[in-house]
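Dig into this one:

. . .
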Amino acid sequence: MSSNIYKERESGTKVDLRHRPLVFIDIETTGLDPLQHEIIEIACLVVNPQTLEIRKEYHRKVWPEHLETADPASLGVNKYSPKTWHEAKSLKEVLKELNSLTPGGQFIGYNISFDRSFIENAAREYGMMLNFDYHWIDVMSLVYFKSLSDKKLERLKLTHVCEIWGIPLKEAHTAMGDVKATLAVYRYLREKQK
């Protein structure tokens, strides 16, 4: 199998980056290693790139197949319990739903390399092609750039950034809570740029 897992890259489709829907994404996992741990929750907000209005919301809990490899500390942070995850779906089902969400969309997230490594690894494992643009945007990198002039920012952690900038962060360490906070940070940065 080819290491390329992006349909758009393979087809050579060209779309102006300013017109691609932004797909804010956040995942929760059973640990930090994408080769050992699993995605247990995914949330996305499909956002208009010009107005930053939310067009669609997507949230799914994913049933872990190998809890024996999970880091107990990660499960605690994510508040995992079989009772809370009773309506979870398989990762393969969730990836199919994610794939149909917004073909050609632009993934954007906080510390996006973490999310990307898990999603790409899962796509390869299931032999799936991703319908999204292969470029990913990291909001944390934008925050770092802003921190050069905003001396109140001493750490890049999402909870710290939200606290310093007065951005509500409800349900930290849940996929939907973190993805909504990421969008709010991005909106803040865009507003300050004007």
About this structure: The longest helix spans residues 175-193. The chain has a mean pLDDT of 92.
